[in-house]
Design brief:
Length: about 350
């Protein structure tokens, strides 16, 4: 029996989420809907613009959100990352522990400097625009990896944002080889249009000769494939992984497996904040497949969980809400089974 369902490597970031107008975004010069890397001077400038605004603070980072979602649903997760010896680093470490995620942070001393942070700005149309100061996570390297724990995991997950980090990318690839050697399944995400536009070679390296699971949204898929033709996009993406989850917002998602394409409908909600939706989808999907569910059922659960994320402010759900969503999914499977038995 494996020790972990999911072993992930990614950026440790403390999120500070602000509600802003489109005018404010333009005044601050923030690129809407995308992630932009910033330095400490730019971070101070943005904080000056937002002086007096109230921010919601949570643990963040794309893969961090994914492992927390999986753990809250009842899965077993390990997260390799890097924080500094400061208050935010302690906050981030305790957040992982409180959510039941094992981590290298409890087995090594924190780094000097400042823990990474992400300023998430949410506009009234529910779009999120991120300005990310990497801080200590910019120096994430292979020392954060635990080879035995990778080997004892079902899936090894590489955060696509690591394509922007020299040492982080090399660490992800080092872990990828460890996982391959141990027969562990590989997963990743295209993460953001900015990663595709500016760090594509890093994403190509993460994908390598193919993944078991790949996650992306429709905009990322269009930019990656250089096309808006859905059929062409599906054909190209299917060459990258055995299973591709292509999320399409209110149109639900497509699960691509070779030439097979399964459409899974979305939940109709009033979107308030898209921050963390893709991370939640990946966490819920990978939880379900590691528990033996079909990919269609996993996508249904993932759509349910992601719909709750976008209908609230903040990048995560509570353990109690996720438990309720999981029970609803189980009730649905039982009802489906009863109907099939009666036919």
């Amino acid at each position: 029996m494996k020790t972990y369902d999911l072993y992930a490597i990614g950026n440790a970031l403390v999120d500070a989420e602000y509600e802003v107008s489109d005018t404010q975004l333009q005044t601050m010069g923030v690129d809407k809907r995308h992630m932009t890397l910033i330095d400490s001077a730019r971070r101070a400038e943005l904080l000056g613009h937002l002086a007096g605004s109230t921010a919601r603070r949570t643990g963040g980072g794309s893969a961090g959100n994914t492992v927390v979602a999986l753990a809250q649903l009842g899965g077993r997760a390990f997260y390799s990352c890097r924080v500094a010896d400061d208050e935010m680093g302690a906050f981030y470490t305790q957040d992982l522990i409180a959510n039941g995620v094992a981590t290298n942070l409890t087995r090594s001393l924190p780094a000097p400097g400042q823990t990474g942070s992400c300023m998430v700005m949410v506009t009234p149309d529910a779009e999120r625009s991120m300005s990310t100061f990497l801080g200590a996570t910019a120096e994430l390297d292979h020392s954060a990896l635990h080879e035995q724990d990778i080997a004892e995991s079902r899936i090894y997950y590489m955060e696509g944002y690591l394509a922007a980090s020299g040492t982080g990318l090399q660490a992800a690839l080092h872990g990828r080889q460890m996982a391959q050697d141990a027969g562990v399944a590989l997963a990743s995400t295209l993460s953001d249009v900015s990663m595709i536009n500016f760090c594509r070679s890093g994403l190509d390296a993460i994908i390598g000769n193919g993944l078991d699971y790949l996650f992306c949204n429709e905009e990322e898929a269009q930019v990656w494939c250089g096309s808006q033709d859905l059929q062409q996009i599906c054909e190209q993406l299917s060459q990258l992984a055995d299973t591709v989850c292509l999320t399409r917002g209110p149109q639900g998602c497509l699960v691509l497996e070779g030439k097979q394409k399964t459409a899974v409908p979305a939940v109709r909600v009033q979107a308030l904040d898209t921050n963390g939706a893709g991370d939640m989808f990946a966490g819920a999907f990978l939880y379900a497949v590691t528990q033996g569910d079909s990919h269609a059922r996993a996508a249904w659960l993932a759509n349910q969980a992601a719909s709750h994320v976008v209908s609230q402010y903040g990048n995560r759900l509570t353990r109690e809400l996720l438990a309720r969503i999981k029970r609803q999914a189980q009730d649905r499977w039982l009802a489906d089974g009863a109907r099939n038995d009666g036919q």
